[in-house]
Structure to design on (190 residues):
């Protein structure tokens, strides 16, 4: 809807500028998280996630898709994901002195990029997209990037930052393991 509104009203911005703006909003969210403004950090992260969905739509609708744009968007997302969860965990630690939040953050930093990595490797090896519809009940698991950001947003709003980090780290790891073994045992064993 936002993309169509922009195009219909001649409000054209380059998809790469939209990606950079989304990146900047998430950097601000990370800083607010570090300074323990969790509700604001979560809200900005969710706004950034919504904006991040617009760049690809604008590129498609305006016929300006590019490999460079897709590459830029993908890596900016990985960078700010790491910044945001690090900002959240550091802010939480400064508030509570609970060092265990860093263990969960390490798991999150390990598992978050695996979702994208396994899809990319699958496409390189098979030439096909990894389809969510083939994942059964896990297709409804909010462990993709938008789902993780939304969960961190919700838990930041209610001050349960560590719980949000734990939940997103575990869900990302479960989704990765499920995809890994399904691909290895079913798709690549033939």
């Amino acid at each position: 809807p936002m993309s169509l509104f922009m195009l219909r009203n001649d409000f054209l911005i380059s998809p790469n500028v939209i990606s950079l703006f989304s990146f900047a909003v998430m950097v601000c969210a990370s800083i607010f998280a570090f300074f323990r403004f969790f509700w604001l950090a979560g809200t900005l992260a969710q706004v950034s996630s919504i904006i991040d969905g617009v760049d690809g739509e604008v590129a498609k609708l305006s016929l300006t898709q590019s490999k460079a744009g897709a590459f830029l968007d993908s890596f900016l997302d990985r960078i700010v994901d790491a910044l945001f969860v690090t900002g959240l965990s550091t802010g939480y630690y400064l508030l509570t002195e609970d060092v265990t939040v860093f263990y969960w953050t390490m798991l999150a930093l390990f598992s978050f990029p695996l979702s994208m990595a396994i899809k990319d490797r699958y496409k390189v090896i098979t030439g096909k997209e990894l389809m969510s519809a083939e994942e059964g009940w896990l297709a409804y698991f909010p462990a993709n990037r938008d789902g993780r950001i939304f969960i961190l947003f919700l838990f930041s709003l209610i001050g349960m930052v560590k719980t949000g980090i734990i939940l997103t780290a575990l869900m990302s790891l479960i989704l990765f393991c499920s995809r890994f073994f399904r691909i290895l045992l079913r798709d690549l064993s033939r």
Remarks:
- The chain has seven helices and no strands.
